[in-house]
Amino acid sequence: MTYLECTVHCHTNLCDGKNTPAEMAAAAAAQGIKVLGLSGHSHTPHDDSYCMTVENTARYREEIARLNEEYAGRLTVLCGLEWDQWSDENPAEWDYTVGSAHYVTGPSGIRHSVDHNLETLQAAFDDFGGDGLAMAEMYFAAVADVARQRPTVLGHFDLIKKLNGDGRFFDENHPRYRTAALAALEAAAGKVQALEINTGGVARGYREEFYPAPFLLKRWKELGGEVILTADAHTAAGLLFAFDRAAEYAKACGFDRAIVLNARGQLEFCKL
Ligand SMILES: [Zn+2]
Ligand SMILES: [Zn+2]
Asked: Do the Cβ atoms of 7 and 239 come closer than 8 Å?
């Protein structure tokens, strides 16, 4: 397989994606993708703004089973999950998981989304008394917690930067920021099968840089980690968004191979 034949971080309209599972599968088959990994946002009791409901989770499983019959021999649809730290889903019950942190818990005890919109990130920042670096430190501690659950893929490692494009919340070059991020990366080493190079923030116009930042991807290479290219696709048109650029980025950071999932859901290497 090549890295253009597998895409494993994809959302449908059963969570916050735009297209149905059937539309995602049709788009995947039309462009020669062999393995479409759907990774709906896991049911997370405190937040119904973007996750699958219990009912939609059941429909998701049924629809994926139906699509695998329809596309047998042409396309495999893996039944994955983007598993959030606060989800009540069992990661072991899915073909694979993308483990993600989407929240920081502030000093008040309130859990704030770091990526939903500027208002939620501002509320987190205010909860930390305007200390954006403390907020980032809390975020990376959450990422390390997710990694300890041993998801297949560790999702959008530095998502906290999504809405910080103008640097208004914290300085991404500050030693405190870098130290916290590197500590989480080191905690993840040996615990996850792959770190994703996620093009979703670029696809949606939030940032010009993929997740994770170069200093993190280079360190991941030094730690002996593997990578997987993902689009965090929320539309059928975005299944392989900027995969060639992501591959070049991985190579520039020292990688010559990436992980793909095959039709049986097993890990394989492909050349970059
Ligand atoms: Zn996510
Ligand atoms: Zn996602």
From this structure: yes
Considering every ligand atom, which ligand is closest to the CA of 8?
2
Angle between helices 21-30 and 54-70 (to 10 degrees): 30
CB 119: neighbour CB atoms within 10 A?
Answer: 11
Look at residues 231, 217, 228, 220 and name the one whose alpha carbon lies nearest to residue 259: 228
**CA 157–ligand 2 middle distance (angstroms):** 12
Q: What is the pLDDT of residues 9-48, one digit of tens each?
A: 999 999 999 999 999 999 999 999 999 999 999 999 999 8
CATH of residue 36 = 3.20.20.140
Rounded to whole angstroms, the Cα distance separating 15 from 174 reads 35
Rounded distance from Cα 51 to ligand 2 centre (Å): 10
Tell me how far the alpha carbon of residue 73 lies from the centroid of ligand 1, in angstroms. 30
* Ligand 1 center to 156 CA (angstroms): 7
Ligand 2 centroid distance, CA of 67 (Å): 21
What's the pLDDT tens digit per position in 150-170? Answer: 999 999 999 999 999 999 999
Domain that holds residue 111: 3-271
As residues whose CB is below 5 A from the ion ligand 1, the structure lists: 100
